[in-house]
Amino acid sequence: MAVTRGFLGKRRGQEHRLPPGQYDVGGGWPVLTAEATPRLDPQRWTMTVDGLVSSPTTWTWDQLHELPPSSYVGDIHCVTTWSKFDVTFRGVSVDLLLEAAGPQPEAAYVMAHSTTGYTTNLPLADVTDGKAWVVWEYGGKPLPREHGGPVRLLVPHLYFWKSAKWVTRLELMAHDRRGFWEQNGYHDRGDPWAEQRYQGD
Amino acid sequence: MTDAPLPIEEVQAVETAWTTGIVIEKAQPTDDLVQLRVHVQDRIRHRPGQHYLIRLRAPDDYTAQRSYSVASDDDDPLVEFLVERLPDGEVSSHLYDVVEVGDELEVRGPIGRWFTWDTTTPAVVLVGGTGVVPAVAMLRTARRLGRTDLLRVVAVGRSPDHLPYRAELAKAGASLAYTRVSADTRAAGAPTADEVRPLLEGVELAYVCGSARFASYAETLLVDCGMPVEGIRVERFGPTG
Ligand SMILES: Cc1cc2nc3c(=O)[nH]c(=O)nc-3n(C[C@H](O)[C@H](O)[C@H](O)COP(=O)(O)OP(=O)(O)OC[C@H]3O[C@@H](n4cnc5c(N)ncnc54)[C@H](O)[C@@H]3O)c2cc1C
């Protein structure tokens, strides 16, 4: 497309880490939600893995904290064009949860459900092999409520709407089904480096 | 746009692609607001509440894109945006300082199927600052369809000068609240539960739009006034929360 007359760009910071069309939000962390922010009592919250698994499993808050923890340190990218560098999240690897539940061979997709009814779909391959976490700590502190606290899914290699806030359930499926934003026009996979923002990208 | 005027309730969101927008009108109603009215090539019809992406491109192909809500009704031949210039804002300062009538911009839209008003559901709209933009689109559409009784808009600004479209909102019957100055009979301050509760009668949906701080305040207020959480749709833009 044509060059915009008079535009040179501010290009703050480290462009090689920025996927196309993204900008470095710096120290901030925009809050973008479609729903009112729920107040969840961690002691009443549970995490379930079910659907196409051999043993559907549910963890309480305390049980989840007994699993071996792991951290993600790296960048995150939101479809609304901000990226944030060098963030730290702590929680458990989704691999551990899947291991306990035992995905059936036909399972190829995951639907993440949140307590608010929000859903988002992912290929199973995008949440296995150390690519996804269920996290409750950000920068060494409890995950703030507006960022999904007490617990959110974290799939940092995809646009951040895939990292469902207030996650409560991972449902394994044989066939892909669109989640909330995907039905509302967003891309099924959401790879920031391929700029898969909307259906048709 | 199609020739057959499909009722807007039946307009479905479709896949969008980048296209060219030509700036036909530019106004700077205040030191930090710019209003652009844009002709969009191969335009797709929109519902009130939807937004467009505007993308700027540098000579070396570096791009910056941001989302901007549409202020205009679907029957307006131009798509209208109202943008707040942020000090140091990459895209908003270009739109305010540099863009001239006749310039081409890359645009894509309309986008968003959740934060849209279907034109038939009674709703409360609680908006702050530049968050008024989608409310303006909703009111303009309601006026064309003769359905203004379905919308109850509360628009909040720091002062009258910080409330875009203030005159139009007032004329359309919106309640205006200023957080820093008193005006008419109303003392300075955010809208209160006593002011908002009566507006919720018979309402099925609430739309909240504004900065993260405004949105959290508005959500809490609505819930305190008895609005079910499931009936609240939020669009946050503005500074980090
Ligand atoms: C769905 C949607 C609809 C939107 N509609 C509108 C609209 O109708 N009108 C409009 O003006 N904006 C709107 N926005 C916000 C807009 O997309 C940009 O974020 C905004 O214009 C800032 O972009 P920038 O490139 O100028 O600033 P950037 O270069 O991105 O940011 C500059 C600095 O300002 C901070 N900042 C970002 N936004 C704000 C703010 N609002 N106030 C104070 N500081 C801020 C950033 O954190 C950063 O530090 C909308 C956003 C969304 C997601």
UniProtKB/TrEMBL annotation, chain A:
It holds the Pfam family Oxidored_molyb. It comes from the Bacteria. InterPro entries: OxRdtase_Mopterin-bd_dom, OxRdtase_Mopterin-bd_sf. Residues 1-20 are annotated as: Disordered. Residues 36-181 form the Oxidoreductase molybdopterin-binding domain. This is Sulfite oxidase-like oxidoreductase. It comes from Nocardioides anomalus. The lineage of its organism: Bacteria, Bacillati, Actinomycetota, Actinomycetes, Propionibacteriales.
